[in-house]
Amino acid sequence: MKIGINAISIRKGGGVVVLGRLLSNFVRLHPEHQYFLTASEALAADVIPQSPAVTVRWFPEAKRSYTRMIAWHLVTLPALLEREQIDVFFSFTPYLPGRSRRISAVLVQDANYFSDEPGLWDNLTRREQTIMRLKQLWTYRTVRIADRITVQTQVMSKAIASRIPSARERISVIPHGPGFLEDVQCAGPRRARRTSEVLEICYVAIYRNHKNFRVLLDALRILKRRGIPARLHLTLGEQEGRDVLRLMAYAGEIGAVDMIVNHGELSYDGVSRLYRSVDVLVHPSVCESFGFAQIEAMAFGLPVLASDTSVHREVCARAARYFPPHDAHALALLLEDLYGRPEERTHSSNLSLRRARDFSWEASAESTLRWLCGSEGGASCAESDAHSNQLSLQPYE
Question: Could you read off the pLDDT of 244-276 as tens digits, one per residue?
Fold first, then answer.
């Protein structure tokens, strides 16, 4: 079988992780298939496995513009699929060119387009909001015409089906693996819990409105007032300059700027070192389709505090402790409890390690290939209504 994979708009972040881990496992598990990948030259070449089963068609990043990207999907991509005689077309971005004779499959990863959370686009310029709205409309169109759709959580599946009911029977839920880790064991043995004078907190995320950074800064201010020494470690890169400046200005206004260390964008080794050096991961985001940072942190044995959303409950189950998404006082109380009770950190660490073992890139790749080839590969949205949550340690209501 010849499988076409569209990754033309993937350049960094979680999309790169998913592409690299899935494709590597595709080749290892089923080298008899041929994988034809279209990708931007901005994508690091070492993400792609070196194998005779993989053919890559690189496209110049210099030609990227919204107009060109639309033309690429509507004209260039269909011609390529025809010329290469692709059997199944699998898009890592939710932009299908249109109906065709070949089977079309799409991975939907952006929860922003299906969220009811208010204010997600408030800080965007009018032009940026227009672009987001057009992307949303194209995503909805793709979901309506795709032969097969996959998402990572039952929550995301139901959110899509509620907006586009005709897609319900075509959606399959296939959880991803443990983030940038090849498997959970790659995190290595967890060091003994330390008792520190400073509570070291991390939030591994790029800046987006839905990441909800301010509630974490407000919690720092509360901890400072209560005399709890704490330090927040961030990984915001230079490309997020305007947003980082605004965030740090706010931290200065509330007197918390001296409690923040921004490491900038880190390599996978750098993120691993960060996870090993801190006491807890806080994930206050209000809109996610999955959440790699939580699974990565759990694999390193970190306690996880997460905003109380359905996706976080599904992914972390009983391994995390939850707070109302915009309640800085509730978050501060949880952090204070971890600081004052080292035994609770140890207990939470053990829960994290246990939960992390439920995620596997090999299992994800195997299920995805079965799904692509037309066999059972994941629970459909309709099936999920009748069965307990396949991710959770216990059914989540």
Answer: 899 999 999 999 999 999 999 999 999 999 999
Count, in order, helices (H) and strands (E) of the chain. Answer: 14, 14
In angstroms, the CA 195 to CA 364 distance is 37
Maximum Cα–Cα distance for the chain, whole Å? Answer: 67
Burial degree of 20 (CB within 10 A; 0-12, 13-18, 19+): buried
d(C-alpha 75, C-alpha 68), whole Å: 10
Q: Model-level pTM?
A: 0.89
Kindly report, residue by residue over 344-357, the tens digit of the pLDDT.
Answer: 989 999 999 999 99
List the domains of the chain with CATH numbers: 2-177+360-386 (3.40.50.2000), 184-356 (3.40.50.2000)
Q: Which of 106, 297, 90 is nearest to 201 (CA)?
A: 297
